[in-house]
Amino acid sequence: MKYAIVAAAIGLAPTALAAWAFMIEPSMLRVREVTLTPPRWPLECDGLRVAVLADLHVGSPWNGPENLARVVARTREARPDVVLLAGDYVIDDVVGGTFVPPLVIAAGLRDLDAPLGTFAVLGNHDHWLDAGLVTRAFESVGIRVLEDASVSLRKEACTLSLVGLSDAWEGRADVRGALAGVPDGAGPILAFTHNPDLFPKVPERVSLTIAGHTHGGQVWLPLLGRPVIPSSFGQRYAIGAVVERGRHLFVSSGIGTSTLPVRFATPPEISLLILKSREGA
Question: What is the pTM of this model?
């Protein structure tokens, strides 16, 4: 009897793992708070709260407009100072997905609320659909799309420059042009883009670069790590905080799924970055 129970448990294990990876974990949502200390981050901006929503892929399984409403509500509850949307809002190839038009997605994001505003860049999937269509949809609800452009933000004594860099695969990815509008001495620079493969081109004057695109591989396996990362750099920019030659990057694992609707040990997340000054340490 004991051996029969053990055998049954072993036999059910693959089914249970599949249910977790294809149904339970993709439908989860967490707010992951990460404290970072970027270089040249002034005391005046100490504690700035940045919400990052990457790879929404609205319409992927377990991730329709109803889940987008949950994402927006959880983001508002986190009380960010600024919200950054890091690209790939639509789907075009995920198994079991249902296409959701950009106007519907934009309407769902309309209620995002942050003192410094909500800003977006486009991802490769948005370009594959129609970059102009996605841009117009977002800007119709007051979300500014920063494609190789910058804007100055101010909260009390904190003044910073936010730079949006276009996608490394499908955009112009004009890092130099995007930064040309930011004069020296204008305060710290926070940059965001869709694909982290652009990071090696970002100069040291940028305090922190934020990206998505990788989904954290969607799957992490013991001993094997993250088998599939859509990056020319392999595991180098797969997920989380990266520091190279004094330059700082953060890659969010995102919310939706692409190609296969699977997540394992890489749950959907709203990344909430708390940016601390070394001056206050």
Answer: 0.94
